[in-house]
UniProtKB/TrEMBL annotation:
Domain ZipA C-terminal FtsZ-binding: 235-362
This protein's name: Cell division protein FtsZ
GO biological process: cell septum assembly
InterPro entries: ZipA_FtsZ-bd_C (IPR007449), ZipA_FtsZ-bd_C_sf (IPR036765)
Stretch list, region Disordered: 31-60
Organism, as annotated: Hydrogenophaga aromaticivorans
Superkingdom of origin: Bacteria
Keywords from the named record: Cell cycle, Cell division
UniProt xrefs under SMART domains: ZipA_C (SM00771)
Length: 386
């Protein structure tokens, strides 16, 4: 073999090796980032504080102005929260979380007690009875559906033992009854047709248990419903940030691992995580969502995500939880850890000034809700804005 042939063979081999190396590099760069697991770590990593160096100190929002519409907006249902698992310390090493299974439907804590009828947001009709009625009889007489049009319908009894209004329970006795329907929710105000349906449903229940209803004036209640709906429409707020990958895509496990460091736990639905509230029975503070099909894939670690949504139901979370401050900090921490950027739904980058303006608007919104006895996170607010 001549020197020329040997040289050409060497050059060809080098070119081929270069092509293979380049293809391997491109493949590795395009593959989604996956979660890492440290051997010997038995429990979940410690949720990171929102006052850690990664996220910076708590930012106090301003108190100026309010806008009729707060952007960016996203709407997501919320699951009931559960407490995060206890952290596990690793002496002498940084605390690293294990892979969080995002397809597992975790057990979540239900609300401690269902909110009762409230004259502020409900039409309430007293049902007079001649004597105590058993809870079993009341349950048997309840209508098959607990809705009137798009509004919740409820019956309560005054418990003979505890002296409190509650939904009928077996084995209890009640010496007073009342039926109610919600005045307004996100579907709109109670209208004439729905009020008439409420009267029919409540009358049928009263006849079944031998009670005499005392219905309020329809016109007055429908007018009250419209007034409440007008207030709610002008003070509803659902905020959403988008986290978009700048370089490599993310796997569901990678997203879940980084979110778990901030205290997020898996929600009821695949592809959803929540930041639990500090009190049991309260709505989650924040919700983190991504493609549910990617979360349910046969091999989720090979699924590529280029964006995740971080959302806040403003009216469902108490002001004392500082939800928007924590939302900003969570978004900043995730963006830094996963090499992403924070945008609105349209892909527009959100500046610090824009977020400061939203925070100021929210403070005014909280004040308006408080002045109408519909404080954010209260049972009344959560029912009205649902």
């Amino acid at each position: 073999m001549s020197t020329l042939q040997i040289s050409l063979a060497i050059i060809g081999g080098l070119v081929l090796a270069g092509v293979v190396a380049y293809n391997a590099w491109v493949t590795s760069k395009s593959a989604p980032r996956t979660a890492s697991e440290r051997p010997g770590l038995d429990g979940a990593g410690e949720p990171q504080s929102f006052e850690s160096p990664l996220t910076g100190p708590v930012i106090e929002p301003d108190h100026d102005g309010i806008s009729e519409r707060i952007e960016p907006v996203m709407g997501h249902p919320f699951e009931a929260p559960r407490e995060p698992e206890p952290p596990v310390a690793v002496d002498g090493e940084a605390r690293v979380p294990v892979v969080v299974p995002v397809t597992l439907n975790n057990v979540v804590s239900p609300p401690e007690k269902r909110p009762g009828l409230d004259a502020l947001i409900d039409v309430i009709t007293p049902l007079a009875v001649e004597g105590p009625v058993s809870g079993d009889a009341l349950l048997a007489a309840l209508p098959g559906t607990r809705r009137v049009g798009s509004k919740p319908f409820a019956v309560e009894g005054l418990n003979e033992t505890s002296g409190e209004w509650e939904s009928p329970r077996p084995g209890q006795r009640y010496h007073a009854l009342q039926a109610g329907v919600q005045l307004a929710n996100r579907a709109g105000a109670l209208n004439d047709i729905e009020f008439s349906e409420f009267v029919v449903k409540a009358q049928a229940f009263a006849d079944a248990v031998g009670a005499a209803p005392d219905f309020p004036d329809m016109r007055a209640e429908v007018a009250r419903a419209r007034e409440l709906d007008a207030f709610a429409s002008g003070h509803d707020a659902q905020l959403g940030f988008m986290l978009r990958a700048r370089r490599s895509a993310w796997s569901p496990g990678y997203v879940a691992q980084n979110a778990a460091r901030l205290g997020f736990v898996a929600g009821v639905l695949p592809g959803r995580m929540v930041l639990p509230a500090s009190a049991a029975g309260q709505a989650p503070i924040l919700s983190l969502a991504f493609d549910s099909q990617a979360a349910m894939a046969e091999d989720p670690e090979q699924s590529a995500l280029r964006e995740v949504a971080l959302s806040l139901e403003v009216t469902h979370v108490p002001r004392s939880e500082q939800p928007f401050v924590r939302m900003r900090q969570a978004a900043a921490a995730l963006a830094e850890a996963m090499e992403g950027v924070i945008t609105d739904d349209g892909g527009q980058l959100l500046s610090t000034d824009t977020m400061d303006g939203i925070g100021a608007d929210l403070e005014s919104l909280y004040d308006a809700l408080d002045s109408h006895d519909l404080s954010a996170g209260s049972p009344q607010a959560r029912r009205l804005f649902s």
